[in-house]
Amino acid sequence: MQDIMIMASLLVFLNVTLLTILVPGGPIENRDFSNLKGGVFWGFNLFLISLGIISFITCYLLLISHPNAIFITQVIAVLYFIVYAVDLAGIFPKSPTKMSTALMLLEIINTTMAIFLFLFVTAIGHVSS
């Protein structure tokens, strides 16, 4: 069972890594978000930073097989899915700059990884209970 928890931890790490490379102004994310008001911009960034930090903590919780690690990972996977889905759907964040093809493909991959993470840890939860 410990090997499966290590794999789950690595999947969370992969998800958070895929999120962090999408930092605005970075190599992939080139859209202009200057139209977002300060509170919305910083609130969204605070949410993404918190998601990243909680993801790293969850990696550790999975490694030590913490009793709530599976549930926390499921919540994180859903949050990753929501972040990518609302962006791909053009709901939020809105930008006058069109999403690049590379960004769109990476977000589709990241959405798929979030779904896979959710299914993987849910299966672990059913096997271990």
TrEMBL record:
Protein name: DUF8051 domain-containing protein
Transmembrane annotation, as ranges: 6-28, 40-63, 69-92, 104-127
Top-level taxon: Bacteria
Keyword Transmembrane carried by entry: yes
Keywords annotated in UniProt: Membrane, Transmembrane, Transmembrane helix
Source organism per UniProt: Brevibacillus reuszeri
Keyword Transmembrane: yes
Residues covered by the DUF8051 domain: 8-122
